[in-house]
Amino acid sequence: MHSEQPPRKLLDRVRDQVRVKHYSYRTEEAYVQWIRRFILFHNKRHPSEMDGDEVNAFLTHLAVNENVAASTQNQALCAILFLYREVLQQELNLNLDAVRAKRPHYLPTVLTVEETLEILKNLTGVYQIVAKLLYGSGLRLNEALSLRVKDLDFSQKQIIVRDSKGMESRVTMLPQNVVDQLKEHLQQVKRTHQQDLERGYGETFLPFALQKKYPNAAKEWIWQYVFPSGRIAKDPRSELMCRYHLHESGMQKTLKQAVRIAKIEKRIGCHTFRHSFATHLLQNGYDIRTVQELLGHKDVKTTMIYTHVLNRGGKGVISPLDH
User: Fold this and answer.
1) Active site includes 225?
2) 84 catalytically annotated
3) What is the pLDDT of residues 202-212, one digit of tens each?
4) Which of 15, 140, 245, 280 is catalytic?
5) How far is the C-alpha of 131 from the C-alpha of 177, rounded, in Å?
6) Tell me: the pLDDT tens digits for 49-102?
7) What is the extent of the structural domain holding 160?
8) Residue 37 annotated in active site
9) Do the domain assignments include residue 42?
10) Neighbouring residues of 276: CB distance < 8 A, sequence distance ≥ 6
11) Does 306 qualify as catalytic in the annotation?
């Protein structure tokens, strides 16, 4: 007689459901963390015993007591809704009257072309290549680090960005300026991959169910990350010993240093390159729809923010002081 399997813990069921939906590992970690915090906030009560009032109380606590940003509060709400809809399959009687965190309305920081080139000059090696793709192709940092060899199309001078924000894919340009550097970098990556294969490693994490569909694909060159990590480690989802891509923090720290050397007194992060990419394209006369497609924005309103940046300085009006 077979003993019955013990029921899976709630957070394990959340992880299972996130993976069924093909959400990123980052989203999985965030959702699990928020659901755990929601349960602890209500003294470890099981979510199935709670309803909309408890959700409102938690969201209000985040805004009032923890002073979180609007996007953070929204992520917490998405995690809780996911728990009730997808895991517990329980109808939530939610009338959102929680105190909502204030959403700031700000214009993105944009670099001039000269400032951009000055920062790029202060970067070296792999981090310079990544920064050139952020600025030259308008990629988000995670999109650049997640690139695989097959996503680079040198003959068509384009990059295929797969499963980015909102699980959409898009095509953007591969700047000529970075091609030689990138090809040289890939030769080094290929040598490392060859050495890994000889040592019995060389597999990479494959998205969705591709591992089952194509058992040998994980070792193929085209599936390797363009910017692999310097060490082999265990993949948190599949337990596979492999090279994941470079961690975001390495790029962020290196950029901070490059900005300090350039003595540019603006609040600059990796995303600033993407803002600058869009603004400089509009300055060069490209239409907003083209820029929207290259950035992968669903709504042109999101892209419109860059037209406000173009008009900075009183919407192009000359100050009476300057007459």
Assistant:
1) no
2) no
3) 888 877 666 66
4) 140
5) 12
6) 999 899 999 999 999 999 888 889 999 999 999 999 999 998 888 887 767 777
7) 113-309
8) no
9) yes
10) 110, 111, 116, 135
11) yes
